[in-house]
Amino acid sequence: MTARKSHNRRFLIAGAAALAVGVVAVGVASLSGSLGEIEGTIAPQLYVDSVAGAEIPLHGPYVLVDANSARLYMIEDGRVQDSMRVIVGKPDTPTPALKDVIYYETLNPYWHVTPDLTRSLIAANVLKQGPTYLTSHGYEVVSAWRPDADVIPPSSVDWKAVAAGEQQIYVRELPGPWNSLGHFKFNLPHGDGIYLHDTPRKELFAQDQRDLSHGCVRLEDAERLAKWLLGKDPPEASTPDENILLPKPVPIRISYLDPGSQMQLAALR
Q1: CA–CA dist 210, 90 (Å, integer)
Q2: Known active-site residue 197
Q3: pLDDT of residue 47
Q4: pLDDT digits (tens, 9 = 90+) for 218-232
Q5: CA dist., res. 116 & res. 118, Å (int)
Q6: Close Cβ partners of 27 (under 8 Å, ≥ 6 residues apart)
Q7: Is 183 one of the catalytic residues?
Q8: Residue 26: is its pLDDT beyond 50?
Q9: How far is 39 from 135, CA to CA, in rounded Å?
Q10: In the 8-state DSSP scheme, what is residue 154?
Q11: DSSP code of 234?
């Protein structure tokens, strides 16, 4: 082989190698363009970038609530495994968009009545119907939001002062079939009072318009979500407000997806 031919051959090989490196670089750039990082209490990881506003991780379990369509999605390794209808906040008390982590689920939860409902609902009805309203509806007054809180006799409460907003008390609804939170609650540590929960009002899920709550997310089938998060059937509760730790923390996002993102989400099944 002549020196000129040898030089030309080395030139062609070098050019081909450079082209291959360029193709690989373009491929990596294209791939990395569809991936990003999630920041939060879970270690940063890559996520599926095809669904805007969802931040779906490529690996592990993930819960996504789309408040616009009032649906919850159970996602594993970037693919939708299951979904259900939910009820979200009313227009004047909308469910906030947020990112958080579920660490445990609560069986047989108490419902801690909010201060505004304690004034407008509980106190108002006690003044009309007497203290028997509390026992007939499964409510009790307690000293604090603690498992070991003392139960306070209703007769010791100034209900007029409570109704006027001049005195604050703690009222909780006992666990049971008609408890407002049903049999399951999924707390969000940074949800500022927003959480996911069961409900005895299953008939409301038949409605197309499901913005009916005070901000929390009511679940069509809370037991199904509880089983999916645990990877097995949830145990029978032995005490009220019993917390069951998940095998590992599960990130959750509540978002308001546009129609395009909803269609892209449907393609992940």
Answers
A1: 8
A2: yes
A3: 63
A4: 999 999 999 999 999
A5: 5
A6: none
A7: no
A8: no
A9: 46
A10: G
A11: P
Q: How far apart are CA 231 and CA 69, in angstroms?
A: 26
Instruction: Give the pTM.
Output: 0.80
Angle subtended at Cα 249 by Cα 248 and Cα 250, rounded to the nearest 5 degrees: 115
* Mean pLDDT calculated for residue range 19-39: 37
Cβ neighbours of residue 38 closer than 8 Å, sequence gap 6 or more: 44, 45, 47, 55, 57, 251
Judge whether 95 and 219 are in contact, CB under 8 Å: no
CA distances from 78 to 51, 63, 181 (A): 11, 11, 30
Cα within 13 Å of Cα(223), Cβ side: 9
- Look up residue 265 and give its amino acid: L
Task: Measure the CA–CA gap between 218 and 194, rounded to whole angstroms.
Answer: 11
Report the C-alpha gap between 69 and 199 in whole angstroms.
Answer: 19
Burial 79-103 (b: 16+ CB within 10 A, else e): ebeebebbbbbeeeeebeeebbbbb
Q: Which of 59, 183, 190, 197 is catalytic?
A: 197
* pLDDT at position 146: 86
For residue 245, what are the β-bridge partners?
104
Q: Beta strand pairing status for 196-197 and 217-219?
A: parallel
On whether the CB atoms of residues 61 and 250 are closer than 8 A, the answer is: yes
Of the residues 112, 137, 190, 216, only one is catalytic, namely 216
